[in-house]
Specification:
Elements lengths: L7 E5 L9 E4 L22 H5 L22 E9 L6 E11 L2 E5 L4 H6 L1 H8 L7 E2 L2 H4 L3 E7 L10 E13 L1 H10 L10 H4 L4 E7 L9 H11 L8 E6 L10 E11 L5 E4 L11 E5 L5 E9 L1 E4 L2 E3 L2 E5 H10 L4 H4 L9 H7 L2 E6 L2 E9 L4 E4 L12 E8 L4 E12 L9 E4 L24 E6 L9 E10 L4 E3 L11 E4 L5 E11 L5 E10 H14 L13 H7 L10
Antiparallel strand pairs: 1-28, 2-15, 3-4, 3-7, 4-5, 5-9, 6-8, 7-8, 8-9, 10-11, 10-13, 11-12, 12-17, 13-14, 14-17, 15-16, 18-19, 18-21, 19-20, 20-23, 21-22, 22-23, 24-25, 24-27, 25-26, 26-29, 27-28, 28-29
Protein name: Peroxisomal leader peptide-processing protease
Organism: Cephus cinctus (Wheat stem sawfly)
Keywords: Hydrolase, Membrane, Peroxisome, Protease, Serine protease, Transmembrane, Transmembrane helix
Length: about 575
Amino acid sequence: MADRMFELRAFYVSTSYLSCIVAIAIAPFTIGHFLRRCTVRLFYELSTKFLSEPLKDTSSLETRTEIFRPAMESTGVLVSYTYGEGRLSESYGSSGILIDHNWILTHGSLMKPAIFRNTSILNFVDLLTPGEIIEIPENISCQLNFQISEDRASDPEEPQDIHQAEGCAVAAWKCPLLKDTLENVFLTWSFDKLSESNRILLPVFLLVQLQDIQGNGSTVREVLERLHSILVTPGRGQNIEVQATPFGNPVFIHSVARGVVSNIIGSHKSVILTDANAVPGCEGGPVYMIRNNSEKILCGMVIAPLSWCRGEWVDYTFVANLKPSLERILENHGTQELIEKDSKEQDSKLAVLLDKSVLVVKCGAGWGSGILLDKKTGTILTCSHVVKEAPRSRIKVLHRSNCEKGGGTSTWARLIYRTPDGKPYDVAVLKVDPGEISPTLVDIAIGTDPVQRGDAAATAGFPFFSSNLPTVSRGNVSKCLSCMIQTTCCVQSGTSGGPVVRWPTGEMLGMIVCNAISSSNSALYTRLNMAIPVSVLKGPLDEYIRTGDVRVLECLESDDPTVRQTWSLYVVPVSKI
């Protein structure tokens, strides 16, 4: 008897909703009952003395200065604590960043279990004034004592060399840029899947002081100024590395995941989207930009490893861009000279190339992506399902040149051709007035070298947002057939019609059509996606551009049974034994 195969079907990745229903998950569990907030009057005055004088060393342990690293040699650590009493006590851990001799920066989600059991902590967080660094009151800080663990093994093949110290949360702040981004950029997003107590932690940062490490007498302001001086804002398409402790488990301390900066969005570019993999417990972990010389520079902190959009799991990690976040905090406290320093890295050459060739295609209530093939004739390529509402709905093509300032151009497009429903090649050809095309746009470069399994590749398109620059993901060609290319890039709704390109040259290898979803619709596989090879598209499209004869595009309507079976993800069993 033939083995029963795991059933998959194609999930076409254009978006068909005007609004996005999204929940960012800080934790893999939900709350059954919301904690009622007590009407406790708390005063959180920002003390000048707190920022200008060293905090008291409350250590009762032996000083161990050799345990942690020198000033400003940042590294990822595990921050853990036990909450509850007796048999009901549980341990919880998350990631953090050792930023100085005896200082740890981490994310507010670390307080998640504590606020479920203690309304005083919930009220403290809820009443934080955005942009103000607040000294944590003693009645709160005594409940936020942490164990800090660092793996000091110098060789990855060596056994773990875990060093530990005790720490206490001494300061907290709510980033106004993150708060503004969550409330405005994600205005149409819904966070209903999270409790109120979880949602308020997203823009919150915690500063922890190690109690058993001899410090250098630094104030909070001095520590943050030194941290700010080493930070950089990465460019889209640049390589990054996440260092974290997945699931807060000490076995996974200092785990590394690499990817690229997929997009930078929000108020003052405060949120970085990356395709680097992260899971619960990675919140608070450092994110480093990797330069061409392999130098690593701290740029961000993981704030949300899991999210959902329109019921679709989002396989991008949300990272706080630390440079602008700290600038706003320091600006509020008189450190103006730091704000003038420009440390914005340029977008990668590949991202810049894709910005000039990848477009938003809107038709009806949804949108997808498109590729500029020939500027002289105004020819644009996209997927048939992206423009399925045409001609009932008009098609608009948008080019984003500067998402933060709302820059860009738009023009109406005419549908020249689309493959009929049920045909395997999901292709549509659009035409716009060449005179209305932005002068900054250029034709995408078409790859001529054969595509090989394992080739480095990237995708670009507009998942979740149609008002930002293209989102980039890096992966590789995992399978290459004459009629289909499969990649491991992260592809989500809204990316249909975007290009698969060779990394790092930007030569087009194919057009994204769909990713895989289980037959029960229970799981979407964003990193198992399919594209039409450029070898299938090039001949008919070149002939159309040369002659203007739409009939030459009809050869894209393949009736080949092998092509049909491949695109239906149906494999004929080779044996019945």
